[in-house]
Design goal:
- With about 220 residues, this protein is of the alpha+beta class.
- It has six helices and nine strands.
- A hairpin with a 7-residue loop joins strand 1 and strand 2.
- The longest helix has 17 residues.
Length: about 220
């Protein structure tokens, strides 16, 4: 069924749905912009959760998919805070037979005090689950099946627990044109330098596993 433009007083057909929630549509960019102060109060893309699922795409090869936001689903964890409890909940609620950390990546806005932390299904490939092109961008290798993304960081840092679908989608889009390993190395250098006072301008790369100050989810 065709939707009418959601902007106040506009009666034109809505040609393009909101990318965040798909529940309203607009006839033009101008109408969408004018209605945003109202719509953002209810838009699913602006609601905060402590975990999102990144669903696998049916394609296992080829260029990264374009509908990043469409592959994200809120999945609020009741046991957020420790790796053991989070993995147990993911396995129980999602029916995963296996789960472990499969990647970490910083956001697209320059943060070096917290990062996104990814849980994946370690036996997903042998169980015949499809490739996850979006997860591939940030996990340093092929991923299969759905993955779960939370926020984490080194012990003692102030990590913002909840985040929006929109924020995660923008970060994942960022990694379509940026190397996740290169960005992680640069942010680790920045964080280490701030904590120690060392000048790391001549260091070309850093291995996060060697320089981490104690991962809260370790």
């Amino acid at each position: 069924m065709a939707l009418t433009c959601a902007a106040t007083s506009c009666t034109q057909p809505g040609k393009n749905r909101c990318a965040g929630c798909k529940e309203v549509a607009y006839c033009s960019k101008a109408c969408q912009t004018s209605h945003w102060p109202t719509h953002k109060k209810t838009c699913a893309a602006c609601k905060k959760y402590n975990c999102f699922l990144v669903h696998a795409d049916a394609q296992a090869s080829g260029p990264p998919v374009d509908n990043t936001a469409d592959q994200l689903e809120p999945f609020h964890l009741q046991a957020y805070g420790t790796e053991y409890a989070e993995i147990s909940e993911l396995k129980r609620r999602l029916g995963w037979t296996s789960a472990s950390e499969v990647g970490k990546f910083y956001d697209h806005q320059g943060s070096d005090t917290w990062y996104y932390f990814v849980y994946g299904q370690t036996r997903a490939q042998e169980e015949g689950k499809p490739g996850n092109e979006i997860a591939d961008l940030v996990c340093g290798g092929p991923q299969f099946g759905d993955v779960a993304v939370i926020r984490s960081g080194p012990a003692g840092t102030d990590t913002p627990e909840t985040f929006t679908k929109s924020a995660l989608a923008k970060t994942l889009e960022f990694y379509k044109t940026h190397s996740s390993s290169a960005v992680f190395s640069e942010r680790e250098k920045s964080r280490f330098g701030k904590n120690t006072g060392f000048d790391l301008s001549g260091v070309t790369s850093m291995d996060a596993t060697n320089w981490d100050f104690g991962n809260r989810h370790a």
